[in-house]
UniProtKB/TrEMBL annotation:
Protein's name in the database: ClpP/crotonase
GO molecular function, one term: delta(3,5)-delta(2,4)-dienoyl-CoA isomerase activity
Keywords: Fatty acid metabolism, Isomerase, Lipid metabolism, Virulence
GO cellular component, one term: mitochondrion
GO biological process, one term: fatty acid metabolic process
Pathways per UniProt: Mycotoxin biosynthesis; Lipid metabolism; fatty acid beta-oxidation
Family note: Belongs to the enoyl-CoA hydratase/isomerase family.
Membrane spanning stretches: none
Record-linked PANTHER family: DELTA(3,5)-DELTA(2,4)-DIENOYL-COA ISOMERASE, MITOCHONDRIAL, ENOYL-COA HYDRATASE
Keyword flag Lipid metabolism: yes
Matches recorded under InterPro entries: ClpP/crotonase-like_dom_sf, Ech1-like, Enoyl-CoA_hydra/iso, Enoyl-CoA_hydra_C
Organism of this sequence: Lojkania enalia
Length: 242
């Protein structure tokens, strides 16, 4: 499933017909309940190796492969809006933190669940959460306890940006948001996502320099001319595919 997820996002990233992506879980019960512990216990962790170093070597590559699958969401050129609903444990946090905009429902329940199964979350939550939420005390609270928290708390902490009544409403509003984004220049949208992601964890000076290099090429687009002309003519611009 993880490999399929990566393949899908890599394909969507380069599809000129796609302008924005909305991701939700199937059904109403859960976005994801997290790791299938039984399946995991019968997989790589259960295999025998001649010594600890060789087992560590295999496990390291196994973890890196799965990290790469989730990072494909973050690396996708198109904005990704994640709708968190129902049970949103473990992997739900990894996935949504790799996306661009996070929405939830009034009944969503979250948990950074990994310490309850004897490990530190290793697919992205512990690395991305400090960049997404500014309150380190709250981050350590939920990560060290694996306690379940609701959408109200997630909203106040900044984990999600909007909360809706139920999944149906959240998906409807998420699609409206995606449609609004899709009306913008795909060159401008892709560049905005790229520059924002680059700037996380870097100095303002580094971000400014990267922006200057990026826009030195990307302002040379017909989209800029069309947008300015539409503003003068007071009409809505239409932008071509990437």
């Amino acid at each position: 499933m993880w490999l399929n997820l990566s393949s899908i996002f890599n394909k969507l990233s380069h599809d000129p017909n796609i302008r924005a992506i909305v991701l939700s879980g199937a059904g109403d019960r859960a976005f994801t309940a997290g790791l299938d512990v039984q399946a995991a216990s019968q997989g790589t962790l259960s295999q025998n190796y001649s010594d600890p170093a060789r087992k560590a070597h295999v496990l390291r590559h196994h973890i890196l492969d799965f990290q790469s699958c989730i990072s494909s969401i973050e690396k996708c050129q198109k904005p990704v809006i994640t709708i968190l609903h129902g049970i949103s444990f473990g992997l739900a946090l990894d996935i949504c933190l790799a996306s661009d905009i996070r929405l939830s429902t009034s009944t969503t329940r979250f948990s950074v669940k990994e310490v309850d199964i004897g490990l530190a979350a290793d697919i992205g939550t512990l690395s991305r959460l400090p960049h997404s939420v500014g309150n380190l005390s709250w981050i350590k609270d939920v990560c060290l306890t694996a306690r379940i928290f609701d959408s109200g708390e997630a909203l106040s902490a900044g984990l999600v940006s909007r909360m809706y009544k139920d999944k149906s409403e959240a998906v409807t509003e998420g699609l409206k948001l995606a449609n609004l984004i899709s009306e913008k220049s795909p060159v401008a949208v892709s560049g905005t996502k790229q520059i924002l992601n680059y700037s996380v964890g870097r100095t303002v000076e580094e971000g400014l320099n990267y922006t200057a290099v990026w826009n030195a090429a990307m302002v040379q687009t017909q989209d800029v001319k069309d947008a300015m002309l539409s503003g003068l003519q007071k009409k809505k611009p239409t932008f071509s595919k990437m």
